[in-house]
Amino acid sequence: MAKERIIVTLQGDDYDLIPSRAAARLAARFDATLDAVLLEPDPSDFMMWAGPSGAAASVMAGAMSSIQIESDKCAATAKNTFIDAMDFAELTADRGRFLRISDQPEDAAAETRLARLVVTSHHAAAGNGPLAELVTAILIDEQTPIYICRHKDEPPESVAIAWDGSREAARAIYAGAPLIGAAKKIRILQSDSGLEYRDRRAASIDRLFDWLAVRGKRSDMINLDQFEGNVGERLLQGSEGLDLLVAGAYGHSRLREFVFGGVTRTLLTAADGPAMLLAH
User: Fold this and answer.
1) Nearest 5°: CA angle at 224, between 219 and 226?
2) Which CATH number applies to 158-279: 3.40.50.2000, 3.40.50.620, 3.40.630.30, 3.40.50.720?
3) Cβ–Cβ under 8 Å, residues 154 and 252
4) What does the alpha-carbon distance between residue 193 and residue 188 come to, in Å, rounded to a whole number?
5) How far apart are CA 191 and CA 234, in angstroms?
6) SS (H, E, C) 108-176
7) Three-class SS of residue 42?
8) What does CATH list as the number for 4-149?
9) Angstrom distance (rounded) from CA 75 to CA 79
């Protein structure tokens, strides 16, 4: 019986291919079930445009019918992609579910509770397309870790861990523990710049070394202060050549343009770099 639960967000187009395959392969690695979530337009979003007249009702009915047809097309495409990914990773049908959800993003995000992590595309995580608000709600509101794919669907063989002793970083590390445990190479990225005394104690590198040692893993360490640029840019430089960056994500506002701190925004909008596992 599967011991974990992984979710992949789908939108019914070509952006689903890599996340669905990556999620299926991670489900095999984590010994997990895999749920695919397709977020459809919420009909209540369109009801406000309906007026009291019969003409308005007729126009509204036509619009709703068109929306439903397009939703069905997207759902069929997403479901086929999901089934193909399950077959690709040799997962049996009883370990996967395909869910169509018509809801507001913040309500749909509640579906991710008790999941080990949620897999999504870099396109969506960077704030693009129909899944952007859902991914934000998952990471910030639900505080469910997200795994952001880029160009590959293979599980990572090398991992960079951004360590500052924060709760967010610790949650990201816990979420990625099976991947860290299976990695052939691990690199810790750290910077003492800007840390108060209390933070320096929490960010002790020995704490993470001990955590890795218990799992039979060793790592090297890079001080990010040797690189130029802001912290996000230095994290990308420090993780260059590795498959996955595990890091805490920081957000303060529910507005998309302000929701992520500068570090997280830099990581999410970078054109190149490793896959990422982020937790808030």
Assistant:
1) 115
2) 3.40.50.620
3) no
4) 16
5) 10
6) HHHHHCCCCEEEEEHHHHCCCCCCHHHHHHHHHHCCCCEEEECCCCCCCCEEEEECCCCHHHHHHHHHC
7) coil
8) 3.40.50.620
9) 6
- Taking the C-alpha atoms of 73, 87, 6 and 111 in order, what is their torsion angle to the nearest 10 degrees? 30
Q: Are the folds of 4-149 and 158-279 the same?
A: yes
Q: For the chain (length 280 residues), average pLDDT per consecutive 10?
A: 91 96 95 94 54 56 71 93 97 95 90 95 93 93 95 95 90 94 96 63 84 95 91 93 92 43 82 93
- CA 32, CA 24: separation in Å to the nearest integer? 9
Tokens 């054109």: give the residue: 271
Q: What is the pTM of this model?
A: 0.88
- Residues 124 and 135 sit within 8 Å (Cβ to Cβ): yes
Q: Do the beta carbons of residue 21 and residue 85 sit within 8 Å?
A: yes
DSSP structural state of residue 251:
B
Boundaries of every domain in the chain = 4-149, 158-279
Full strand arrangement of the beta sheet holding 146-149: 96-102, 32-40, 4-10, 117-121, 146-149, 275-279, 244-248, 158-162, 185-190, 220-223
In order of 45, 137, 225, the CA distances from 54 in angstroms are 20, 37, 67
Record the tokens describing residue 183, joined without a space: 């990695």
What letter would DSSP give residue 53? S
For residue 190, give Cα distances in angstroms to 162, 239, 276. Answer: 6, 11, 17
Question: What are the tokens at 95?
Answer: 């370990």
Q: Strands 185-190 and 275-279, how do they pair?
A: unpaired
